[in-house]
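Honest question from a wet-lab person: if I give you the sequences of every part of a complex, can you actually get the arrangement of the whole thing, not just the pieces? Trying it with mine:
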Amino acid sequence: MTASVTERPRTRNPRRRPHLGLVLAGVLTAWLIGWYFLRGTHTLELAPAQLTGLHQALNELNHAIATNRDTNPLFVYFFDVIRVIVGEFAGFIQGLIAQPAFGAPVPVLGWLGVVAVAGYIAYTVGNARVSVLAMAGFTVLGLQGLWQESMDTLALTLAAVTIALAFTIPIGIWAGLSDRFHRAITPVLDFMQTMPTFVYLAPLTLFFLIGPASATIATLIYAAPPTVRLTAHGIRAVPPQMVEASDSLGATRWQLLTKVLLPAAKRTILLGINQTMMAALAMVTIAALINAPGLGNTVINALQSHDVGTAFNGGLAIVILAIVLDRVTTAAGADRERAAPQQGWAARFGTGLRTPALLLGGVATAIGIWLSRTFVWAAEFPGAGTLGSWVEGITEGITEWVRSNFAVATTGLKDGATALVINPLQALLTESPWWLIAAVILTVAVVLGNVRAAIVAASCIALIIGTGLWHDAMITLASVLIATAIVVAFAVVIGVWMGRSQRVDQIVRPVLDAGQVMPPFVYLVPFLALFEATRFTAIVAAVMYASPVAIKIVTDGIRGVSATTVEAATASGASTWQVITKVQLPMARRALTLATNQGLIYVLSMVVVGGLVGAGALGYAVVAGFAQTSLYGKGLAAGIAIVLLGIMLDRITQAAAKRT
Amino acid sequence: MTTLHHPTESIDKQRDRLSEPVISVRELWKVFGPKAAEVPTSPDLRALDRRELIEQTGCTAAVRDIDFDVAEGEVFVVMGLSGSGKSTLVRCLTRLIEPTAGSIMFEGDDLLTAGDKHLRELRRNKFSMVFQHFGLLPHRKVIDNVAFGLEINRMSKAERHTRAQEVIELVGLGGNEHSYPHQLSGGMQQRVGLARALAGDPDVLFFDEPFSALDPLIRRDMQSEVVRLHQEVGKTMVFITHDLSEALKLGDRILIMRDGQMVQAGTGDELIGAPADDYIRDFVRDVPKSDVLTLRWIMRAPREDDPLDGPELGPDVVVGEATRRVLEADRPVKVVADGTLLGIVGDDEILAIVAGPEGDHA
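Yes, you can. This is the full assembly:
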């Protein structure tokens, strides 16, 4: 009896992994038996419009804050002050480049002025190449018919980055100089980066309302950690010999900081600024969910009406903006002097040319600004975005063509995966009694990790039940686990390939870099076109989003295996396959678990975005919470549930990583 | 070699003739660990050897009760193997590492009681250091690296560049002043380090194994460079090395350390001629003695039957230089100083050194 019972579900269940050991197989068997007999009981299901006491309490809190925010001193003198200052600052930058301001019907700088200034800044901090790239990129944005949307996005990004840097660089310097402060701030940064991207949008709107101000605040919080981390890292990585040498020459602490540490850490700090910039751009587009103006808005509206053409055009604009910002800040980080040859005509010619070029560029920029303030054609982008409608048309054409010609393949893939993988796992997770799943999770936490991870997991489970969204959390968990499994599989295959071949690495790495720069939204568009709004689409998008990071980690891990060990294995007659499976992968186990951990975190941060395209469950609840006041509390609770899932999975995988 | 004389006394006299020491170190201790301060003051703990000290207190004494003086214009070498405490010692002298106990007088100034500001003044004007790994600033050109100490000391840009250019020429780097450190070879980078140390015109230069990271040929060039600079600018130098031949080549006097303690201090020929213990004897075994020992160390008292009408040589002539004269003469060479006959050197004495004594090849 038992044998036949276990046999049937096991063939349906693709998560069989005998190599994980007998214990896990036993756990799975027990789970399947439990599921078979107990399915449908204690599942803690909640109907979409149904609210728990907690959700209502949060609704009431929202309401209470809304009615009392004009009288409560905490709001009048603290939150509102921050909101007004940040809002004014963001509005000021928007007035410079995006929105009509200062009594004029157009922004201070018209499009020609912005293009000129962008080109000039790119040349000043970088080189001629990125300058041309910036000007061309910005012009394309105009041709797409998305000039104002792009400038709104850019303005909010710049506002958030400026404010963030004002805090993060000093904090990073402090963390670089003081061990104690470094120890104190590292877990905070870890937590900030573990937290799925979109969940603090909801609490922020509670305090700062919706609109550009809270979008900027959310963005600067999200974008802050890389600069802090990399500034601290840059300062810490300065060789002690350099510090000792300046000490021996009698440098004061201030001289040490300004003349040695900061210049030596400059490249790393600029890398941090680059990462902060990219994170800010990604978040500003997402912040369209709380009514931030800009390209994110265009894409979200298009996604919600399944208008692939418009979504793709908007996504393309985000990508262009991302490439321009990335290239310019990267070029600023490349050390011009050190890269230049020491002597010879090239160096002399280059430096000789640079000063006149700067002057000339300055004059050209001034003319551009003047033109853009004088003539309408230079102020408002002429034409109605012909390139944009062309892009939209082409996209829709291709989508239509793919749909009609490959419908069998795409639907087959989608339906097959849904029926064979997604549905069974989701059934197992959602139909099992909550206590059975809790027992399984805790056992896995102990077996793979340690008791501490299990304790954290237990608290997270209790709190998720507390949010009233256990059932939704299990649906989300199913998608997350499947997406992560695919990510890890990709990471192992491609990572091993890249780690073993320099040539493959050279070809694939730029693709991964580009993938990491793109804001998460953009991933959804093509898959939405192919697979329509389903759980499958959300999973594929999450896989695309999370794979680059995981692949890079595995590549580095494989590369980190000592060449001598590989050589020794080859010398003793191991085949390529044996070298990979018996030497390189086992020795890169830490990298594998780390890749799993990061893959999970990245997949999880796509949950909310997935909610926009049919993933349902927690992601949908968050999105719905922004849209409907009556669901606000539920959305907030769903955000919390995502964070709890994140903490739980992070702790378990990290504990597992430490054991390897 | 039973007839060796011990000419320590005359060396001491020589030293006395010089002015008072630039650096005077007494009972210097540097202990790392939880009970660091107790070790130098407790007679029980002082008596423990390295391993016993770690077992009982968890402390390591990197520098133990070191005494020495460095005279003006002297090249004083501290030599020892890695872990002997020599690098810690030189850092104590500049207080890059804070000593645990003892005293360091620098030009009559008590270094250990100097406040931060006073210490910075000393570092800016009185002494400077050359490091094993150069410690150059990669984001600065050679000239700005050399001028760094002057910049720290708030010298105007024009002035410090003029001075830096002088020193760059002095160390033979002329023409490279606008390069970046990474564009230079290791030897050239260390010349930059040397120039930086010289730029502030300090009284004393400290060298912490400056040439250990360089290739042997470059190392030899750099050693000659230091000898040349010492002759040209006449600075007092304290030189740390693990390389005995380097120590013998550069050092007026050499202090040998082991496990934080001084084993022997003296001139090169003293160390080789009269090793204080087996450790030193083992150490100096492979040194070509004829390059270091002087006639003073190998001469013997004349015997009744020795003819005393051979050629004359001074006692400080190195054996290698005297070899040909002694072997060509058909009589023993007389070692004479100020008209007094100190002893004689015959073929046997020379051959014992040049060819090695019997049984040394075992």
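Two things worth pointing out. Residues 1-18, 338-348 of chain A have pLDDT under 50 and may be disordered. The two ends of chain A are 38 Å apart (CA to CA).
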